[in-house]
Design brief:
binds heme C, Nuclear Transport Factor 2, Chain: A, 15 helices, 350 residues, six-stranded mixed β-sheet, alpha+beta, Cytochrome Bc1 Complex, Chain D, domain 2
Length: 350
């Protein structure tokens, strides 16, 4: 693969008319324009549909969820579950109730998707790696929530909310807490899971009997939102550890890492453009995720410069993963980082 990744991304986004989502002003035109027909094949049809249909506005480019839009996290949910929900939104089995404000929003978003489009989008979302929670908003008792979960939910939703495919129990760990609580209220009030055709939803509704109070709902939602997060063994101390920890957490799709480890004014210098600020960097990696949903980084030969202790050199940094056509892709490079007071303030990636 000789094409430079940033050129590829630029061309794909241009093809889709999505450059407005790129973090910074349009870069200088690439000297050699990549073959657009070849690029369209690099991005899965599901990824293209997901962007073109505007799903990312409420669910995030990496399916990580968008709290202010009430859009739940979709990354890593089983394709079958996602497809079933989309079909249910379409035919009113879910979101058909007048009281279901958010469900009705979703109905509008899916009403003209064909069955094949639903399958393609569901597969694309399932290929994303699941992320830890973005942020929690509920005030509850985690230990009580954990106890409720072990007693009443674990059988169908698996150890620590990882899901139980055999029983169609959805993975719940790391989902946005407010969304979880809303779904539980919906099941309880018959807004979700009461339709005659909703076989699995009705199983879930029947399981709500043991949740005595609103506080139980809040406690168990808080527990599920935060269980299984990737905890770093110890906070990084040296500049090398800061860089290594940043990529490790990024590979765990931990969006918080971006804001914790990157300085608010960070600048990333790539060969053909600059990306500034944590939000700009997240937009940049999200573009990579459109082509390579399961991307991960590998860093080798990390060392601190002898004369300037804030400079970290990485002799080899590669991004790898699978393309839509099933081919594995590895993009090798090198990088230098300036780390001040535990934060990455500037980076040169080539
Ligand atoms: C206007 C914002 C918005 C848009 C656009 C949108 N969604 Fe949603 N989506 C939501 C909200 C809000 C919910 C939660 C509904 C509820 O509370 O039941 C949701 C729920 C879902 C769910 C159910 C998740 C679960 O865990 O059960 C799926 C799947 C989904 N959306 C996929 C999509 C896809 C695919 C698209 C693009 C075709 C899309 N959404 C576009 C806001 C949106
Ligand atoms: C008898 C099995 C069973 C039990 C017990 C059960 N669930 Fe479920 N749950 C399901 C199934 C099946 C679904 C998927 C419904 C669908 O496909 O529409 C589900 C869906 C859910 C959802 C919606 C997920 C989403 O992404 O929208 C939440 C939240 C949930 N369950 C929480 C719980 C909690 C909390 C408990 C314990 C109080 C619990 N469940 C107990 C079977 C169960």
């Amino acid at each position: 693969m000789k094409l430079q990744l940033t050129h590829v991304l630029f061309a794909v986004l241009q093809t889709l008319g999505l450059l407005a989502y790129a973090a910074d002003p349009a870069p200088e035109p690439a000297p050699e324009q990549p073959d657009l027909a070849a690029l369209a094949q690099l991005m899965s049809p599901g990824a293209q549909l997901y962007m073109l249909r505007g799903c990312h506005a409420c669910h995030g480019i990496q399916g990580e969820g968008v709290v202010p839009k009430h859009g739940p996290r979709l990354a890593g949910l089983p394709a079958e579950y996602i497809a079933r929900q989309l079909t249910h939104f379409q035919n009113g089995t879910r979101g058909g109730s007048f009281d279901d404000l958010y469900g009705r929003q979703m109905q509008l978003a899916v009403n003209s998707l064909s069955a094949i489009h639903i399958q393609l989008i569901a597969q694309h979302l399932a290929n994303f790696r699941a992320a830890p929670p973005l942020e929690t908003q509920l005030d509850g008792d985690w230990a009580k929530g954990s106890q409720i979960y072990q007693d009443q939910c674990l059988a169908c939703h698996g150890e620590a909310g990882v899901g139980n495919l055999a029983l169609e129990g959805t993975p719940l760990a790391g989902q946005i807490d407010v969304y979880l609580a809303q779904q539980l209220r919906n099941y309880q009030g018959g807004i979700r899971g009461s339709h005659a055709d909703d076989i699995f939803g009705r199983q879930m509704s029947a399981s709500m009997a043991g949740l005595a109070s609103e506080q139980d709902i809040v406690d168990v939602s808080l527990y599920l939102a935060t269980v299984g997060g990737v905890a770093e063994a110890a906070p990084p101390t040296t500049p090398e550890e800061v860089v290594a920890s940043f990529y490790r957490r990024l590979d765990g799709r931990d969006k918080n890492a971006i804001y914790e480890i990157l300085h608010p004014d960070v600048v990333f210098h790539f060969p053909d453009r600059q990306v500034t600020g944590p939000a700009g960097y997240w937009a940049y990696v999200s573009q990579i995720a459109l082509l390579i949903p399961d991307y991960r980084h590998e860093l080798k030969g990390i060392e601190t410069e002898a004369t300037d202790q804030s400079m970290v050199h990485v002799k080899s940094i590669s991004i790898s993963g699978s393309l839509a056509n099933g081919e594995d892709l590895t993009l090798p490079g090198t990088a230098r980082y300036r780390v001040v007071n535990g934060k990455i303030v500037e980076a040169w990636v080539g």
